[in-house]
């Protein structure tokens, strides 16, 4: 039964605030209405969510939540009318704004910030949660990984008994969340050819969650994600229900794999590159399956999917291209670097480091990123930009990259112009920005008429 | 003066949360650029600290879990470590490593992790974390005041014993306990601090101080002037320091930030004060 929420004055006021925010160009109006509503009546979010006839699903992870949720939306859109926070507003207020705006929706599909996940789960009462991974990320904002994991354990414990837990079995902390759940679906990779020779420096959960002994890895795929077993107490990766086999990575362009589900299997070719996008696709396929999608629907949705905002975007700027890959923490940035070098050996890269709250005020994480593959593949020039451009330049200098080949240009627009000027006609400039730098760079190219503002894409 | 430095890096697999490898990279490169042979040896669980083996010891910070995993092993090495420092090894301990080199760390539940007892201090966890940019003024040689810029993120309140020497005076930020106005601890050639960032890339003078101490003949107290090292072009370092110091002055130490806030969407055309 759908609970009827009157379109009270507070909801109308909140909606008007969103339109005003867009009109004043202070933002996309993606969080403001929800913030206002939350202030006026926190319980309104619970009632708005309860009104969705098919309930809600939540997607959370340190890395890949935006892409995963967008993939699920691509798969489910032919089947359901969705309330989906696809502009990246992933706090309680963003979920509230989406609920306010989506009057005719049947199913809620929400990407949720790792820190906000427990509160959103408590209010929205999802019928399924999809939990992808936990990496060290912006310690100044989120605190320690163990702290987030503990709060996630509590949130999953409090889900209704009917709710599905869809988890990445390759992450020791996350995979363990499905233990004891009546309805659980575990996904992971099964292709030893793509294992890393050693755990990356940024690997986090490499000690047994039960007894603290270092795990033995039969395969480590991305950071600490892989096939692990504790040599002492035997805590190991759970049995996988949904998995990817015979993975083929085509440089910067695409990835394909055999998607194996309990019922069937099918080849999937993504338009996105990299192992991390195979993880995102597996997460999306698993969640879509418990939400009622058939395998053909899943495959077709994944194959049509293009890219989530700013995560992996190709933008044409006159006769040159920008390849924009968001970086925000060591594990994610390592994969962005891997993607950039897998398509050849870029001679030039533009990296933008800001330190606003949304980027992380503490920039120490760049020293945990393995930027070295860029240097080893023959990088000739680095354009370092953003408010902390000098710190980024030091990261490369102390990696042994010659200082005279680093151009430090803190102003983003000037740096972009320099990067484009150094890019040959017909060439592609690899751009790795942090979050607010990505927004600002997109705005610059947007003002020049090359991309649309994100709230138009989101609409 | 010996032209060779052996660095002992304690628990690099466990205590590396704040990009501690950046500090090691700075020590290694700055030595190499001057033709000094520097070798980094890791000291892990169960490994002894052999007397006289290391000229410089480094210990970083970990998450609570990793710190708990290493604490008892470190306590078992305590005597060896104290001996190494007493016999002239230089030392840099950052954040969690700094806490563990005190007498103990008491967490929010009252559980105590044993410390090494090298530094005359103890640490007790507080309710809220002290997170933000920091700027210190230090005087490691008499009459020479230098600045250190970094970032701090700690729940622990570190209290120095009466008469203990802090690393520096807090110009902006929280420091040891958010109240005393001091940060870190200095004991001869050993330095403990909450400052990461990592600390050394944007404060290369401290890296050179540590290298100088590591090269100094054993057994001597640090002289008025550390051994002279060839100067390097540090323009990038200076400009990174400048931004970091400005951040501390603008936004260091103001609020005790509650952890686990999420991601707000920033305004698109944000311009920060004091920047062009």
Describe this structure in words.
The complex is a heterodimer of chains A (459) and B (276). In chain A, 36% of the residues lie in helices and 20% in strands. With 459 residues, chain A is an alpha/beta fold. Chain A has two domains: 9-304, UDP-N-acetylmuramoyl-L-alanine:D-glutamate ligase; 313-458, Mur ligase, C-terminal domain (Protein-Tyrosine Phosphatase, Chain A, Alpha-Beta Complex), CATH 3.90.190. The relative contact order of chain A is 0.10. Chain B has a single domain (4-251), classed as Rossmann fold, CATH 3.40.50. Chain B has six helices and twelve strands. The longest helix of chain B is centred in the C-terminal third of the chain and has 17 residues, at 235-251. Residues 255-276 of chain B have low confidence and may be disordered. Classes of the chains: A alpha/beta (459), B alpha/beta (276). Chains A and B meet through α7, α8, α14 and α16 of A and α1, α2, β7 and α6 of B.
Overview in brief:
Chain A is of the alpha/beta class and 459 residues long. Chain A has helices at 9-23, 32-40, 43-50, 65-76, 92-101, 117-124, 139-142, 145-157, 172-175, 275-290, 295-304, 330-342, 372-376, 389-397, 412-422, 435-447, 454-458, and strands at 56-60, 82-84, 107-111, 128-131, 164-168, 184-189, 216-222, 225-229, 242-250, 254-260, 265-270, 313-317, 320-324, 348-352, 381-385, 406-408, 428-433.
SSE diagram, text form:
The complex is a heterodimer of chains A (459) and B (276).
Chain A: H1 9-23, H2 32-40, H3 43-50, E1 56-60, H4 65-76, E2 82-84, H5 92-101, E3 107-111, H6 117-124, E4 128-131, H7 139-142, H8 145-157, E5 164-168, H9 172-175, E6 184-189, E7 216-222, E8 225-229, E9 242-250, E10 254-260, E11 265-270, H10 275-290, H11 295-304, E12 313-317, E13 320-324, H12 330-342, E14 348-352, H13 372-376, E15 381-385, H14 389-397, E16 406-408, H15 412-422, E17 428-433, H16 435-447, H17 454-458
Parallel strand pairs in A: 1-3, 1-4, 2-3, 4-5, 5-6, 6-9, 13-17, 14-15, 14-17, 15-16
Antiparallel strand pairs in A: 7-8, 9-10, 10-11, 12-13
Chain B: E1 4-10, H1 20-32, E2 37-43, E3 56-59, H2 64-76, H3 78-86, E4 90-94, H4 96-100, E5 104-106, E6 112-114, E7 121-141, E8 144-160, E9 168-172, E10 182-183, E11 185-187, E12 190-193, H5 204-215, H6 235-251
Helix pairs in contact in B: 1-5
């Amino acid at each position: 039964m759908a609970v009827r929420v009157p379109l009270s004055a507070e909801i109308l006021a909140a909606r008007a605030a969103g339109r005003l925010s867009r009109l004043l160009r202070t933002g996309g109006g993606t969080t403001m209405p929800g913030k206002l509503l939350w202030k006026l009546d926190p319980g309104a979010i619970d009632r708005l969510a309860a009104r969705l006839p098919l309930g809600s699903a939540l997607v959370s992870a340190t890395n890949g939540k935006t892409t995963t949720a967008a993939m699920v939306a691509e798969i489910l859109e032919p089947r359901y009318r969705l309330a989906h926070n696809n502009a990246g507003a992933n706090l309680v207020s963003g979920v509230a704004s989406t609920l306010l705006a989506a009057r005719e929706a049947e199913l809620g599909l929400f990407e949720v910030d790792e820190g906000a996940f427990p509160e959103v789960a408590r209010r929205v009462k999802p019928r399924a949660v999809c939990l992808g991974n936990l990496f060290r990320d912006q310690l100044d904002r989120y605190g320690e990984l163990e702290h987030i994991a503990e709060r996630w354990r509590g949130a999953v414990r409090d889900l209704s008994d009917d709710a599905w837990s869809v988890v990445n079995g390759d992450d020791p902390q996350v995979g363990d969340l499905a233990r004891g759940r009546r309805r659980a679906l575990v996904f992971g990779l099964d292709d030893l050819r793509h294992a890393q020779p050693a755990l990356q420096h940024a690997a986090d959960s490499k000690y047994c969650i039960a007894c603290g002994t270092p795990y033995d890895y039969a395969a480590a795929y991305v950071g600490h994600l892989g096939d692990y077993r504790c040599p002492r107490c035997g805590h190991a990766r759970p049995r996988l229900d949904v998995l990817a086999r015979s993975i083929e990575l085509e440089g910067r362009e695409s990835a394909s794999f055999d998607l194996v589900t309990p019922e069937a299997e099918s080849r999937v070719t993504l338009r996105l590159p990299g192992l991390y996008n195979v993880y995102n696709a597996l997460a999306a396929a698993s969640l879509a399956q418990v939400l009622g999608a058939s395998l053909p629907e899943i495959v077709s949705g994944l194959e049509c999917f293009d890219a989530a905002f700013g995560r992996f975007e190709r933008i044409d700027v006159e006769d040159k291209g920008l390849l924009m890959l968001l970086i925000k923490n060591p594990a994610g940035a390592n994969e962005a670097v891997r993607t950039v070098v897998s398509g050849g050996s870029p001679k030039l890269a533009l990296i933008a480091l800001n330190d606003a709250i949304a980027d992380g005020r503490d920039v120490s994480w760049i020293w945990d990123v393995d930027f070295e593959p860029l240097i080893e593949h023959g990088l000739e020039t680095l354009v370092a930009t953003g408010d902390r451009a000098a710190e980024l330049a030091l990261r490369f200098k102390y990696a042994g990259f010659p200082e005279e080949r680093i151009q430090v240009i803190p102003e983003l627009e000037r740096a972009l112009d320099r990067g484009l000027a150094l890019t040959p006609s017909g060439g592609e400039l690899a751009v790795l920005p942090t979050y607010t730098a990505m927004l600002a760079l997109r705005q610059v190219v947007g003002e020049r008429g090359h991309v649309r503002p994100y709230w138009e894409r989101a609409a | 003066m010996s032209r060779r430095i052996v660095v002992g890096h304690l628990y690099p697999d466990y205590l590396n949360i704040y990009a501690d490898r950046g500090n090691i990279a700075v020590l290694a490169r700055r030595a190499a650029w001057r033709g000094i042979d520097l070798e980094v040896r890791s000291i892990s669980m169960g490994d002894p600290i052999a007397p006289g083996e290391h000229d410089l010891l480094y210990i970083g910070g970990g998450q609570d879990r990793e710190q708990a995993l290493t604490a008892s092993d470190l306590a078992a090495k305590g005597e060896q470590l104290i001996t190494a420092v007493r016999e002239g090894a230089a030392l840099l301990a950052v954040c969690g490593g700094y806490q563990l080199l005190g007498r103990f760390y008491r967490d929010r539940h009252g559980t105590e992790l044993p410390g090494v007892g090298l530094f005359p201090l103890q640490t007790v966890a507080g309710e809220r974390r002290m997170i933000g940019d920091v700027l210190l003024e230090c005087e490691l040689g008499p009459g020479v005041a230098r600045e250190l810029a970094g970032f701090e993120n700690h729940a622990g309140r570190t209290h120095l014993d009466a008469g203990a020497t802090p690393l520096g005076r807090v110009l902006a930020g929280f420091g040891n306990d958010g109240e005393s106005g001091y940060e870190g601890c200095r004991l001869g050639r050993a330095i403990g601090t909450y400052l990461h960032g990592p600390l050394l890339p944007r404060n290369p003078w401290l890296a050179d101080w540590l290298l100088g101490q590591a090269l100094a003949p054993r057994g001597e107290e640090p002289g008025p002037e550390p051994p002279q090292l060839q100067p390097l072009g540090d323009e990038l370092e200076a400009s990174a320091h400048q931004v970091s110091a400005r951040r501390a002055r603008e936004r260091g130490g103001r609020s005790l930030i509650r952890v686990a806030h999420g991601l707000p969407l920033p305004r698109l055309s944000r311009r920060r004060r004091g920047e062009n």
